[in-house]
Specification:
By secondary structure, the protein is of the alpha/beta class. It has 2 domains: 2-215, HUPs (Rossmann fold), CATH 3.40.50.620; 230-257, no CATH class. The protein is 27% helix and 25% strand. It contains 6 helices and 11 strands. Strand 7 (140-149) and strand 8 (153-159) form a beta hairpin. Helix 2 (68-78) crosses helix 5 (190-196) and helix 3 packs across helix 4 (128-136). The model has no long low-confidence stretch (mean pLDDT 94).
Length: 257
Amino acid sequence: MNIYVCIKQVPDTETKIKLNADSSWIDTTGIKWIMSPFDEFAVEEALRLKEKNAGSTVTAVSAGPVRVVETLRTALAMGADNGIHVEISETADNMMIAKALAGALKKEAKVDLVFTGKEAIDDGAAQVTQLTAEILGLPYVTVVLGVEYGVNSVKCKREIEGGAYEMVEAQLPTFIAAQKGLNEPRYASLPNIMKAKKKEVKALKAADVNVSDADQRIRYKNFQLPPPKQAGKKIAGDASAQAKELVRLLHEEAKVV
């Protein structure tokens, strides 16, 4: 099987975010970059499927600036065989990213299955899987918690609202967007980290996949950080006085009662 997994590089959740000079984007200086956690489930599922099907290959695909190759190396260290990097703008929107990924996949000889994370943790848009699949004219199943693999199809257990689940069957090739709980992602061993440095990462430019600035539908401006949290208040006095003051504050300042 020719298995592909689309991944995205995002800021570490513990990174302190700052804005650039004109507030049009974040200041990327000093940021620690990681693979979006939902994509880790996608990589793990791709690797498990490969292990069950002798002769299969797993290719990690990502679109973004040059530094994205570092995250592709993470997927290679986990066990992916090779990678594809499409160099596009730092500020590319979801449509531009989807078109870049679809363009890269179109250049491959045969695609049997594509795994993705259900969403990226930086924007939480949960759009790229669906957009990429639509561009390629392929089916897709999102928020997937379990997969049964057939010869020419897959049956996916997906999470829906209210704590319920539904089963969706799709013909191959198809896209599967992984939800937390699909599996437990493996850690990359030191030997595999070293081997990953020698694995091939194919470099593509935007023009190679028929992507241009005109494909960006959304332009960003005037980013704003959340207002700082107000300092807490300590109420003095005995229990009775504290209770009265607390009720007053909740009523007059917080306006919740």
